[in-house]
Design goal:
The chain is α/β, with parallel strands linked by helices. It has one domain (3-41, 49-277): Alpha-Beta Barrel (TIM Barrel), CATH 3.20.20. 35% of the residues lie in helices and 14% in strands. The protein has nine helices and ten strands. An eight-stranded parallel beta barrel has the order 1-2-3-4-5-6-7-10, surrounded by five helices. Strands 8-9 form a two-stranded antiparallel ribbon. Helix 3 (83-103) packs across helix 4 and helix 4 packs parallel to helix 5. The chain binds fe (iii) ion (2 copies) and zinc ion. One fe (iii) ion is lined by residues 145, 179, 213, 258.
């Protein structure tokens, strides 16, 4: 099982600290933002402890492609109402590609964005023209994330992502990150994981699936809300999420937990242990 979680990236150890955090959870994969997820201010690469981080990854046998980079969620390549917003997304993404390359990672997870006051088709066209201005080097793949369909989000149907990828100038540099909370909220039945994968394969192609976000959901299937829950504390349930974590069809794909902190503490060590042992433990109950 390739399993990890979202980890922090902060002073003083930066990326090295991210790897340390992942190791402390018993993880063999991790996902980080290259700075604050809600803004685009970024540190110099020379300050980020990159060499120390890859040393530590080698020591703990974490593969470079199992360190995932998540682009900040505030950039919006689908916004055609304010062209400067999509322009900022474009600029940020090209610097993010450089950072990802320097860090030695491969996959950048990107939310396709929201069309705001226009419509879905305009949003998709705006994303396509934004992403097509990027020059993506060898070894980097941008993974569009499946979204819950909250507000005017693009990407709550596999068809949206397929349409974007098929319009790319460099389609070999694009893939998908499947978020279990998001697709459940978008209306897919994740309990029928094989059925979901079949549909994904038919519409996008399973060869494009590179990252799985493993989250429970606070809301009913189809609610289009996007509120993550801890494993077994939501409407998807532990058995389904554990089945997905161990499923042979996606065994090679890193699964990343983005479940909420409990009482200010990350739940990832316990949640990873639950998945390894295939046994639910109620983390909400005082021990
Ligand atoms: Fe995300
Ligand atoms: Fe996610
Ligand atoms: Zn989410």
């Amino acid at each position: 099982m390739i399993i990890g979680s979202h980890v922090q990236m902060k002073a003083p150890d930066f990326v090295e600290g991210s790897v340390k955090e992942a190791v402390s959870y018993g993880a063999n994969a991790l996902m980080l933002y290259t700075g604050a997820p809600q803004n685009t201010r970024r540190r110099q690469l020379s300050e980020m402890h990159i060499a120390e981080a890859s040393e530590l990854m080698k020591k703990h046998q974490i593969k470079a492609e199992h360190m995932i980079i998540h682009a900040p969620y505030l950039i919006n390549p689908a916004n055609s109402v304010k062209p400067e917003v999509a322009e900022l997304a474009r600029e940020f993404l090209s610097s993010e590609i450089e950072r990802t390359h320097a860090i030695g990672a491969k996959y950048i997870v990107l939310h396709p964005g929201s069309y705001t006051t226009t419509d879905l088709e305009t949003g998709i066209r705006t994303i396509i023209s934004c992403l097509n201005t990027l020059d993506i080097p060898e070894g980097i793949v941008i993974c569009l994330e499946t979204m819950a369909g909250k507000g005017s989000e693009v990407g709550f149907r596999f068809e949206h992502l397929a349409e974007i990828i098929s319009a790319m100038r460099q389609p070999e540099h694009f893939g998908v990150c499947l978020d279990t909370c998001h697709i459940h909220d978008a209306g897919y039945d994740v309990r029928d994981y094989d059925g979901v994968l079949d549909e994904f394969d038919r519409i996008i192609g399973l060869n494009r699936l590179h990252v799985i976000h493993l989250n429970d959901s606070k809301n009913e299937q189809g609610a289009r809300k996007d509120r993550h829950a801890n494993l077994g504390q939501g409407k998807i349930g532990f058995d389904t999420l554990c089945m997905i974590a161990h499923h042979p069809r996606t065994a090679e794909i890193p699964k990343i937990l983005e479940t909420p902190y409990i009482d200010g503490e990350p739940p990832y060590k316990e949640e990873i242990a639950m998945l390894k042992q295939k046994k639910f433990k109620d983390l909400m109950k005082a021990q």
